[in-house]
């Protein structure tokens, strides 16, 4: 009897570990999203570029030359690629800005095996700024950043170490990744208990990537951006990253230049359902803090 119980528990443990390994693999290794055909929808003339991070990862990107002397770095979200930011690139290019967009590690056409939700992607942003600094056609004193979701988290956590980044717009970004793990576990894995499966997933992710996700907390880095103009945008009906994260940013950073909670928006549609207002707000923000100084 006791032997059967022990055997049953071991079998349950084995099955739980196997399921956790599968979930962790899906989390840190998303299918590569590469859509070169999407460029045809926009009036852009990209220069294909690449640059390498300090830990040796080669990143694929594009540079689009502008006319007003300022450059905006665009950072895509989890599991996506630079093409996700093409609408914003087109919008900003029409306003005269140069654009640097690239695929984070383990995404799109870039090298790298694991996505780390902003942990190691901070090195990718650092490499992007170093790349811009190497270009003679870029005024390094007029660089802004627009980050979506995970890209926004990277922007918050790393920009404080990069003086070249003078103005920052963050959209649909998490304040604490720990809460996103819980929220998405409930949203996409209904019926699977967070304990013990979720704990196993986190342990496996840490073992494979070296990153412990609950410690990815962009809100703790806000103080390093106190001297930078910062704008926060979030959908009020976002179910992947709750609006309470944006409200926490607002509470923790009373010096924010702009805060926009989009009442009819979810996670991915803030731009698409507010296109004219989004363009007006974001373009005006970057013009004010990159050009009128």
Keywords:
single chain; 293 residues; alpha/beta; Rossmann fold; 2 domains; 41% helix
Morphology: globular
Strand content: 15-25%
* SSE arrangement, N to C: HEEEHEHEHEHHEHEHH
Biggest beta-sheet profile: 8 strands, mixed
Distance between the termini: 78 Å
CATH architecture identity of the largest domain: 3-Layer(aba) Sandwich
Uncertain ranges: none
Number of helices: 9
Structure description:
The protein is α/β, with parallel strands linked by helices. The chain has two domains: 1-30 and 179-210, no CATH class; 38-176 and 216-291, Rossmann fold (3-Layer(aba) Sandwich). Helices cover 41% and strands 16% of the residues. It contains nine helices and eight strands. Strands 1-2-4-3-5-6-7-8 form an eight-stranded mixed sheet, with helices on both faces. A hairpin with a 5-residue loop joins strand 1 and strand 2 (58-64). The chain is globular and about 80 Å long. It starts with a helix and ends with a helix. The mean pLDDT is 93.
């Amino acid at each position: 009897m006791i032997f059967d119980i022990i055997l049953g528990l071991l079998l349950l443990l084995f099955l739980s570990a196997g399921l956790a390994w599968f979930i962790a693999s899906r989390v840190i290794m998303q299918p590569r999203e590469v859509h070169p055909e999407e460029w045809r929808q926009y009036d852009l003339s990209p220069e294909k570029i690449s640059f390498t991070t300090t830990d040796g990862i080669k990143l694929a990107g594009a540079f689009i030359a502008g006319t007003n002397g300022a450059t905006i770095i665009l950072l895509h979200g989890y599991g996506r690629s630079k093409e996700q930011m093409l609408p914003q690139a087109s919008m900003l290019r029409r306003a005269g800005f140069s654009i640097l967009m690239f695929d984070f590690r383990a995404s799109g056409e870039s090298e790298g095996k694991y996505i780390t939700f902003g942990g190691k992607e901070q090195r990718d942003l650092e490499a992007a700024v170093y790349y811009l600094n190497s270009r003679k056609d870029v005024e390094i004193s007029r660089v802004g950043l627009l980050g979506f979701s995970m890209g926004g988290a990277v922007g918050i956590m790393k920009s404080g170490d990069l003086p070249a980044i003078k103005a920052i717009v963050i959209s649909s970004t998490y304040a604490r990744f720990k809460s996103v793990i819980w929220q998405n576990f409930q949203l996409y894995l209904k019926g699977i208990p967070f304990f013990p499966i979720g704990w196993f997933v986190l342990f496996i992710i840490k073992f494979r990537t070296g990153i412990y996700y609950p410690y990815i907390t962009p809100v703790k880095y806000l103080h390093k951006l106190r001297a930078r103009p910062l704008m926060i945008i979030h959908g009020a009906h976002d179910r992947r990253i709750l609006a309470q994260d944006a409200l926490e940013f607002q509470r923790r950073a009373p010096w924010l230049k702009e805060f926009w909670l989009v009442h009819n928006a979810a996670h991915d549609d803030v731009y698409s359902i507010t296109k004219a207002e989004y363009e007006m707000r974001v373009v005006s923000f970057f013009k004010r803090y990159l050009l009128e100084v």
